[in-house]
């Protein structure tokens, strides 16, 4: 199939949705399909044979796009829609695939050009605008709820990225085929870091010889980084040599969190390293004694959890539904989503390294069986074969 995919994201960037889109594209190419991707002007180049990227014109003053909804997305999404419309006018595609809010574009373009539309539902858009603190206006939330239902009901098929999203989609329609494929594809081709590189990074970050607690991901409010920082004083009393490394986030977010850490007197124990390339992630994982996911709200499964599990390192995570869809007491230490809970969890793991090691190994074995590229590709292939069969029926 020749696929037009619409992804209103900075592609590629080291964060959840772009990672997921990358792996879905990689799976489609592995099956022998070709993909033309419509996306923002922002993002790093990606070299995948069979993928062509069409970027929107740059908008002066917009050099980055925050995670979740933002005012910058309105003009960017308009350009994405116009670019997708142009591509459909000048080239023939077998179907349209869309991500996030581009589902609305997919419904319109599918109706205009008579192409089947596959919607990748990464989140409930109405929940996303609330959890990201974009708006709490009841009227706007109801409008987004209506748009989300319209997308789900009008799409020809839906891929939900976690059990909660699958359940949500089923509440909106009983006609559209809905498939669940977790965003669990981990890039297993990344080479293991050299010991010299790990030691050099430890020295550069001035981590000493004490334990390292690592967080990777965005620094949005729902990630619970505020709770994590407020948990550090209690941990530091028991383990003064422990250090926290936080990978990810934008400059303004790091500045705010650094000021918070300074007020609490723990800024010297935290290293904010900002966004780092994907190929550096194994190095940071190797540094860690504990991996952290202090998420405070939301129901979408954090993509980082799949990578965490594969690492074989012990995981400390808050016990909220977004995380327990993947994690269990057998594969991680789950604690209440509070500063006290995170502090007690860190102290437990640091106090019993043998138990922590066993927990990490349990997680690794579980991920090898349930969350790996092989499983992701198998599920993706089954869905695309069914979708392609429906295309042939429609053509006949």
TrEMBL record:
List the InterPro entries hit by this protein, alphabetically: Glyco_trans_1 (IPR001296), Glyco_trans_4-like_N (IPR028098)
Annotated Glycosyltransferase subfamily 4-like N-terminal domain ranges read: 20-182
What are the Glycosyl transferase family domain coordinates in residue numbering?
A: 202-364
Keyword Signal among UniProt keywords: no
Q: Name one Pfam family in it.
A: Glycos_transf_1
- MF annotations from Gene Ontology: glycosyltransferase activity; hydrolase activity
Which key words tag this protein in UniProt? Hydrolase
Q: Does the keyword Hydrolase apply?
A: yes
Protein name per UniProt:
Glycoside hydrolase
**Organism field:** Dictyobacter kobayashii
Q: What is the lineage of its organism?
A: Bacteria, Bacillati, Chloroflexota, Ktedonobacteria, Ktedonobacterales
